[in-house]
Design brief:
The protein is about 15% helix and about 40% strand. FE2/S2 (inorganic) cluster (FES) binds next to loops.
Length: about 220
């Protein structure tokens, strides 16, 4: 992945189980992240074309997601396929939720504009184990620079991009990917590859809590 990669992390893979959905923000815009029952992930605009209900409140059934409000049902391409109040209607092709590219890499769900190439993420490991996500009231740049200014014990900085920092240490690789949720709102999604002991996992969790506390203290000082 290059620093110009269009791919933005939106969730830990393990946080979106098959048959579930969740709302998130990307640069201030609402998105629904959902996983169909086959296991494929989808990222769409979080708004039903009917009356604007959030799709993230909807229900996933097989490879469809249905809106909570009036039950309009959408296929994995965002196309409305069924309107319960008009069961015999052939739904017009114009009734469609705007969709985005979605892929998974290194234990994280990523999104980009439709047509983006997932191969841009190929420098990352295919799979990784979730550590945690941190939700912070700061910019992505400030969050990533706080990561590198006080590293977890035994780790050093490896590859970095505009959206990610990789830390190497204790036989593991820790990936920290920054999701710009809105101005001054960032999520850091953390995953690890390699054998990690329970003690090392606990120590990383403590470090992440300390990172959040440091950033919160900076926000209070700046206010
Ligand atoms: S608002 Fe979604 S079906 Fe009516």
């Amino acid at each position: 992945m290059t620093s110009a990669s269009p791919w933005i992390p939106v969730a830990l893979s393990s946080d979106i189980e098959a048959g579930t959905s969740a709302g998130t923000l990307v640069n201030g815009e609402e998105r629904v992240v959902w996983r169909d029952e086959k296991g494929d992930v989808h990222v769409w605009e979080d708004r039903c074309p009917h009356r604007g209900m959030r799709m993230s409140f909807g229900f996933v059934r097989g490879d469809h997601i249905a809106c909570l409000y009036h039950g309009w049902r959408y296929d994995t391409g965002g196309q409305c396929r069924y309107i319960p109040a008009h069961p015999d209607l052939e739904v017009p092709k114009t009734i469609k939720v705007p969709t985005f590219a979605a892929t998974e890499r290194a234990g994280i769900i990523w999104t980009a504009a439709e047509g983006a190439d997932p191969a841009e993420l190929s420098a990352l490991p295919e799979t990784a184990e979730a550590v945690r996500s941190l939700f912070l009231d700061t910019t992505a740049d400030a969050a990533l620079s706080a990561v590198t200014s006080a590293l977890p014990e035994g780790f050093s900085v490896g590859a970095t991009t505009a959206a990610t920092v990789t830390l190497q240490g204790n036989g593991t690789t820790l990936l920290i990917a920054a999701q710009p949720r809105a101005a001054e709102r960032t999520a850091l999604h953390m995953t690890v590859t390699g054998e990690i002991s329970t003690a090392a996992r606990r120590s990383l969790a403590l470090w992440a809590t300390d990172l959040r506390n440091r950033l919160e203290a900076q926000t209070v000082e700046a206010a």
